[in-house]
Amino acid sequence: MRARKRFGQHFLERAWVEKLVALVNAQPTDSLLEIGPGRGALTLGLAQSGAAIRAIEIDRDLAADLAAQAPSNVTIINGDVLALSPADLLGDASDPAPASAEAAPDPGRRVRIVGNLPYNVSSPILFRLLELWRDTHRLIDSTLMLQREVAVRVAASPGTGDYGPLSILTALHADVDTLLHLPPGAFRPPPKVHSSVIRLRFRAPTVDIGEYAAFERLVRTLFQQRRKTVANALKPLLAPMLAGSPDDLLRTADIDPRRRPETLSLQELSTLTRQLQARTASRA
């Protein structure tokens, strides 16, 4: 089947499929969620491990073709990973059992994620996975192929131009490792960009952010105006809630109001969020 541009399809060559299968290192006891299996090269390679696999494919024709050739430990679901519920994505006890009898799935089993993400929707899918982790705590890790620029943003550190909401919200929930870089020629048709494989290892937050919605709102507000000072970038968020200058709030959080948002660490952002929540609550 020909790649469909509207779905951002680029199919991985066999040699690179084998590298990715080795990186995932699936075990018979694993439960895997694959995003965008396409023609199934990675799916069928991973299936040889005996792991139970749920593969989510948005392209109806590709999903039907892969379902016709998939082994019994693979379930193909035709749908959009951004629209499906946690139950649809992670499955339940009715899913195919892994090869090992000792590894029969249960409704609370933990899941590993793998995928060659469509470049045009990779950031929304990453945010969806972080949401899935917060809602279920059932994810172990995610081995994902991304456009290299997106992979750099995911792993970016404070003080760099790539640091922003994607890197901050990812760092809150996971440790990030960059595993592999791929040239355009690793795919058919070749994309116009280079790619990277990263792994997210999910864990509990290492900082206390208080209410998550408040933390995310603060981060997104700051980075909508990342070239401004923190004090000026905060004004749209503070104006409806707090009177006066944000300088006092920032100094209480031990943050120089003249700094730029991209210099703030995860710890400083969490402290600022809690100070803002406390100040708002005291005025309620």
What does it look like?
It is a single chain. With 284 residues, this protein is an alpha/beta fold. It has two domains: 5-202, Rossmann fold, CATH 3.40.50; 212-283, rRNA adenine dimethylase, C-terminal domain (Helicase, Ruva Protein, domain 3), CATH 1.10.8.100. Helices cover 39% and strands 18% of the residues. It contains eleven helices and nine strands. The strands form two sheets. It has a seven-stranded mixed sheet with strand order 4-3-2-5-6-9-7, sandwiched between helices. Strands 1-8 form a two-stranded antiparallel sheet. Helix 8 (212-223) crosses helix 11 (266-283). The longest helix has 18 residues, at 266-283. It is elongated and about 65 Å long. Mean pLDDT is 87; it is low at 1-8 and 93-107.
How is this structure best summarized?
This protein is an alpha/beta fold.
Instruction: Identify the overall geometry.
Output: elongated
CATH fold-level topology of the largest domain? Rossmann fold
CATH superfamily of the largest domain: Vaccinia Virus protein VP39
Number of domains: 2
Strand order in space, largest sheet: 4-3-2-5-6-9-7
Please state the average pLDDT score: 87
Question: Which strand-content bin applies to the residues?
Answer: 15-25%
The percentage helix is 25-40%
Please write out the topology.
Layout: E1 11-12, H1 14-24, E2 31-35, H2 41-47, E3 52-57, H3 60-69, E4 74-78, H4 86-90, E5 111-116, H5 122-136, E6 139-147, H6 148-155, H7 165-173, E7 174-182, E8 187-188, E9 195-202, H8 212-223, H9 230-238, H10 247-252, H11 266-283
Parallel strand pairs: 2-3, 2-5, 3-4, 5-6
Antiparallel strand pairs: 1-8, 6-9, 7-9
